[in-house]
Design the sequence.
């Protein structure tokens, strides 16, 4: 699965601008069925900072995709809690950071990615992971402690974990359109193709 995902990413990044003109269910995308969730006019990326391919997507694919979304379509990212190590603690930090500012969220996310995948460092405890993420985001521990059990944070985590059923289908990162169409990323050969596929699925 990991090797296939890497090959798909390389093909996406290195290909020319040739794109498909017809997109087929089963080949380019699939219906989520019971794994679907409510996200109309939205593209959702299901991911984890513990996933190396999610890191590659966040650096090289996601920014361009978000920039080229059709008018009126929004983007969100669901960080699942179950992928080790310390997936729940990292998700809590990201959920809290997102309530503070998009810059804080991005700073914590990229710091977690770098720490684990580039620096190859593992946290000794959940507390260490939380403290690291908060520091990277420029947020204080007192604010986090006061908010971590709030309804807002709980609702965010519950929403994000809707991605767990999606992740079981073809791994992560997973790109979902309108909460019901899962893009088969291995079939995507260029950024242009991805943009066109997203646009077509949004319009369904």
Sequence:
């Amino acid at each position: 699965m990991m090797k296939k995902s890497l090959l798909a990413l390389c093909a996406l990044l290195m290909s020319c601008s040739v794109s498909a003109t017809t997109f087929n269910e089963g080949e380019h995308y699939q219906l989520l069925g019971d794994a679907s969730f409510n996200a109309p006019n939205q593209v959702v990326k299901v991911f984890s900072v513990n996933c190396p391919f999610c890191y590659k997507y966040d650096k090289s694919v996601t920014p361009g995709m978000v920039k080229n979304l059709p008018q009126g379509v929004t983007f969100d990212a669901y960080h699942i809690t179950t992928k080790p190590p310390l997936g729940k603690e990292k998700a809590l930090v990201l959920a809290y950071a997102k309530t503070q500012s998009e810059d804080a969220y991005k700073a914590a996310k990229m710091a977690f990615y770098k720490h684990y995948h580039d620096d190859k460092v593992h946290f000794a405890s959940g507390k260490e992971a939380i403290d690291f993420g908060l520091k990277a985001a420029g947020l204080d521990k007192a604010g986090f402690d006061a908010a971590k059990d709030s309804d807002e944070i709980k609702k965010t985590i519950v929403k994000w974990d809707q991605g767990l059923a999606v992740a079981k289908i073809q791994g992560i990162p997973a790109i979902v359109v309108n909460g019901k169409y899962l893009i088969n990323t291995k079939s995507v050969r260029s950024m242009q193709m991805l943009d066109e596929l997203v646009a077509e699925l949004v319009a369904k």
Summary: The longest strand covers residues 42-47. The chain has a mean pLDDT of 92.
